## 1
Amino acid sequence: MASFSELIQADKPLLVDFFAEWCGPCHAMKPILENFKKQVGDKLTIIKVDVDKNQAVAATYGIQSIPTLILFKQGKILWRQAGAVNAQQLTQALASYL
């Protein structure tokens, strides 16, 4: 399996959902992200990173509240959002990057 640093270097945009199992708003994001993935298909990869199990990665990116979504491409952060968003906000925010 590729490391996190390898995944964010990809040419295809990578949306990372930093979450925790105990986080209510994080659970609310799951169906929104699943539907978003169906809309965009192969234009985007989405992964989930549990901040409790991956504390070093969370610390590297300064994750202070969850959920936090970060869009990476070729190692660069293109977009970042702390807190839950609805499907329309997510689609509007990411449309220009896909």
## 2
Amino acid sequence: MGINLWTLEPNKSAVIRSIEAGVPESILHRLKELGFSAGHPVICLMQPSFGAPRVYQINQSVYSLDQDIAQCVQVDLVEGA
């Protein structure tokens, strides 16, 4: 099932499917440098309240993304995770 990264619940795993068209090239390039590219697993570690950036783990690194960017990353949930 496909959702965007912002809606991934804490402690849930997904696999990145794509990054939406229209994301500025500089942001797209940086996301890919960090490992946010198709086929990579990602876990939501924390979902602070009041719209604060959410925290994700990809590979062995942890990053926070704000809503505008996280909503552009399309993921597929991992069953049983």
## 3
Amino acid sequence: MYDNRTRRIDPKTVQDILSPHLALYRKKLPTYQATMLDSMSSIWTGPHSRLLDIGGGTGVIAEAISRLFSVREVHSVDVVDRFCRGLSVTTSQFDGTTLPFEDKSFDAATLNNVMHHVPLAVRTSLLRDVRRVVKGPLYIKDHERRSGADDLRLQALDAIGNIPFSGMVWARYLGRAEWEQLASSSGYRIARRAAPARYRSGAYAMLFPNRLEITMRLDPL
């Protein structure tokens, strides 16, 4: 079990978890995913008994969380069933707005690179429903824009990252003030932001600055 007080999450460790489910990672190190998980670990307040992963996609990040973090059970949901087979986590579909669980069913939740794909009109209602079924914190990994140029950068990153896995490409990104407003209107406060992480280096980082990547913990009001 990962202990964020003593060591960092290594890409090779994440590769060992992802590669049995996605052939791409049998040769490619998942450095982005490892950085994302490591960033989340820095603001983690677990242990959490039951965790809900919303918009889980293939389900492999939920699988990694279940293996690396202090959590007993992980349930991943998405609007489309493209979950990998053979996962140890529980998976199911939902309608994108209303989570099919009773009140306070989970201790924490995660949204990993999901919220920018959720239609603007339903973002608040979705987070309010997360607040209904989750007793504790909501961990969000997403993006933060400062300008129209950032929108173009992020659209390119989404295309690079999602098309190979048949993921969603449409997106609408938020600035810092918009994130604050979304949190407060949904019954949360942004309790902590992770320190900037090094997702990219060299020319790639100049083209796609690491400041575009954010990780936050939202605590219920």
